[in-house]
């Protein structure tokens, strides 16, 4: 990635109000480079333009950095690793599991983990309902499914005092009304993603029994 991409990423991170080291920024660009190369053959994302990928994928993923806590994070329906890989790069101390049922995408994820030397990343190929693991402190999704499905399909993977982090476009008022019994919105945040047209929201959901 050339100097223009370095500047655009650095500028976007600054606009998000984040502080990310130069080393981590380089690794984010290395990930973007891998995504661009693999996308031609594997059709990992409908976005083709690398600069658009930087804005719509990288910066969008980084917009939830202030809300990530760990120490165990599951990215369900991660696709090509969004937001999981950018978050794993930013938080090397957090164990990040990337889950997807698309074999092409999980092959890319495995390659990205090796190429980027992401020792804190684990890749799981399969459906969310079939995943068995230690509980996760946070479960994040980006354009995965409805809030109802997200909770129902992964509730067995959430720690007792854990939270769902659902990244959405427009505020999903109707989806919130259909949350399963025992779950409620803890907080909702408007995300201001640089160069992103349209609304972006983060909905944080927790169990009402804890």
Folded structure, characterized:
The protein has 210 residues and is of the alpha/beta class. The chain has helices spanning 3-15, 22-42, 50-62, 84-90, 103-115, 147-154, 173-177, and strands at residues 72-76, 95-100, 121-125, 136-142, 158-168, 183-190, 201-207. It has a 7-stranded mixed sheet with strand order 3-2-1-4-5-7-6, sandwiched between helices. Helix 4 links the parallel strand 1 (72-76) and strand 2. Helix 2 packs across helix 3 (50-62) and helix 2 (22-42) runs antiparallel to helix 4 (84-90). The longest helix has 21 residues, at 22-42. It is globular, with a radius of gyration of 16 Å. The N and C termini lie far apart (46 Å). The relative contact order is 0.14.
In short:
By secondary structure, this protein is of the alpha/beta class.
Secondary structure blueprint with pairings:
Blueprint lengths: L2 H13 L6 H21 L7 H13 L9 E5 L7 H7 L4 E6 L2 H13 L5 E5 L10 E7 L4 H8 L3 E11 L4 H5 L5 E8 L10 E7 L3
Parallel strand pairs: 1-2, 1-4, 2-3, 4-5
Antiparallel strand pairs: 5-7, 6-7
Helix pairs in contact: 1-3, 2-3, 2-4, 2-5
């Amino acid at each position: 990635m050339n100097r223009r991409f370095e500047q655009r990423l650095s500028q976007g991170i600054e606009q998000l109000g984040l502080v990310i080291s130069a080393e981590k920024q380089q690794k984010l660009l290395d990930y973007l480079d891998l995504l661009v190369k693999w996308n031609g053959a594997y059709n990992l994302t409908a976005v083709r333009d690398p600069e658009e990928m930087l804005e719509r994928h990288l910066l969008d993923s980084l917009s939830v950095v202030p809300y990530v806590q760990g120490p165990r994070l599951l990215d369900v329906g991660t696709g090509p690793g969004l937001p999981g890989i950018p978050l794993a790069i930013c938080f090397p101390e957090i164990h990040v599991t990337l889950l997807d049922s698309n074999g092409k995408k999980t092959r890319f994820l495995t390659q990205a983990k090796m190429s980027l030397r992401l020792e804190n990343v684990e890749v799981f190929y399969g459906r969310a309902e079939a995943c068995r693991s230690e509980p996760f402190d946070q479960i994040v999704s980006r354009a995965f499914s409805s809030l109802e499905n997200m909770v129902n399909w992964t509730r067995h993977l959430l720690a007792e005092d854990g939270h769902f982090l659902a990244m959405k476009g427009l505020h999903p008022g109707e989806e919130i009304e259909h949350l399963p019994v025992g779950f409620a919105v803890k907080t909702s945040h408007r995300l201001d993603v640089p160069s992103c047209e349209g609304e972006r929201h983060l909905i944080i959901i927790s169990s009402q029994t804890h």
